[in-house]
């Protein structure tokens, strides 16, 4: 398998790093911002890193550690998106967290994603995108504003999982449409010659 690793950064680790740095964004919104910027083809990390750490109140060492963690997150995420293998995952709280908290984090993730696209200067309208990708962007806008209104039962859990999977596949689709030259068409062989 081409990419048989998970990103080095977990939701909890990134959230703690951001908290120590005094950043205003949490891990979900941050990962969404990184993914949006990558889909828009941002080559420079200055804008999105500045956004995340702009008003960070932590020590200089904590902010620098956070900046380094963000660059690792960017590189890991970019590798997963480029692979086109659907191993890409949204950085969200674990299933042990309440459904209301996970739903809020998913909304923040989508908000960050849309912000990352905009921060990157992506001006996307329905005419520039395929019908499917334009729909994904509209849906992300709705998810970013949605709240939790369920009982937290099995049906709500199933709906949450389905929405997370939809967003995950939608991000991969957007990446492939906006950055087609970057997606690997065939994974490199693991065979040594």
How would you explain this protein's 3D organization?
By secondary structure, the protein is mainly alpha-helical. The protein has one domain: Four Helix Bundle (Hemerythrin (Met), subunit A), CATH 1.20.120.740. It is 61% helix and 0% strand. It has helices at 11-21, 27-39, 46-53, 60-83, 99-119, 131-145, 154-178.
How many distinct domains? 1
Question: In one word, what is the shape?
Answer: globular
Could you tell me the CATH topology label.
Four Helix Bundle (Hemerythrin (Met), subunit A)
Q: Determine the number of helices (DSSP H or I, runs of at least 4 residues).
A: 7
Summarize this structure briefly.
With about 190 residues, this protein is mainly α. The chain has seven helices and no strands.
What is the element layout, followed by pairings?
Elements: H1 11-21, H2 27-39, H3 46-53, H4 60-83, H5 99-119, H6 131-145, H7 154-178
Helix pairs in contact: 1-4, 2-4, 2-5, 2-7, 5-6, 5-7, 6-7
